[in-house]
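dumping this here before i forget
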Amino acid sequence: MDMNTIEAVVPTADPSAWRPGDAWLAGGTVLFSYGSTTLRRLLDVTTAGWPAIQVDDGGIELAATCTIAELYALPDRPGLPPAWTALELVRLCCDSFVASFKIWNASTVGGNIATALPAGPMTSLCASLDGVATVLGPGGGSRQVPVAGLVVGDARTSLAPGELLRSIHLPAAALASRVAFRRLSLSNLGRSGVLLIGSLTPDGGLVLTVTAATKRPVQLCFDGSGAAGPGAGLPDAAGLRRALDAAIPAELYHDDIHGLPQWRRDMTYRLAEEIRAELLGAPAHDASKGA
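structure:
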C-alpha cells in the first residue's frame, strides 16, 4: 500500500458527499494494492449497514458490500428454492478468484464489479445471471443498469463521477436456468484468461456470457427459433462460431500477461462449443477447425 496522499477516511454511503479526489472504499483489496498519487479522501461504505444478501420470491439481492466469503456461503442457506439450480455458479465463480481467505473476507461483490478487471469473477457471475445493478447518484437519485452493461472496458465502467454501486439483483428466472461453466488459465493458480457461462433458460433459450477473454462482458442470446440476437434460433456449431465472430471483433479480446488475444479467441470458440453441446445435448465439434 502506497497511498500517502490520503487526508481523510470518511464513513459515508451518500454520493452527495463525493468530490473530486475521492474514491469509494469497500474491501480495498485492489485499491490498496495499486495505490494512488491523486486521491485525497476515501469514502468508506462498509459502515452503511446494508444486509449482505436478501432473498425473496423474486430473486436475490446482493449488497455491493457483500463479501466473497458471505457469497460463498449462500448455497448452504436454508430455504432456498430447489429450482434455483444456477446457484451452482456461485462457488465456481468465487473459486475463480484464486485468492486467500484474507481476500475472501475483505473483497466485495460490488468492488470486484466496479474495478472492472476483465477477469473479475463477480462480473462473470452477475452478468450471466441477468444481474441488474442499482446505482446511487448525488442528489438522492438512483438508476438500474444490467451488470453486463455496467462494465464497458478494461478497468472502465459506465459509472459517472460520484455514483455508487449499491446492490445487484439476480432474478428468480435466471436462477432457475440450467447452466454450464468453463474457465481456463495459463497456470493452475493463475488469473482467468477465459471464462464462459452458458444458461438454458426455462423457455428453451440459450444465453452465452463471455468474460475474461474480452475487455468487457459479451452476451449472445439465442431463442428456440442461426445468428445471435432477438428471434435467433438455437445454433449449431457453425452458427455459434459465426455468432461469436459477429459479436466479438478482434480488438475486443483482452491482451495481457495472462493470455494473448489469439489464444483467448481460440479458447472462447472451444469452450463455447463445449457449453453448446452440454446444454443442448448435441455432439460437440472441434471448434479449432472452424465451420
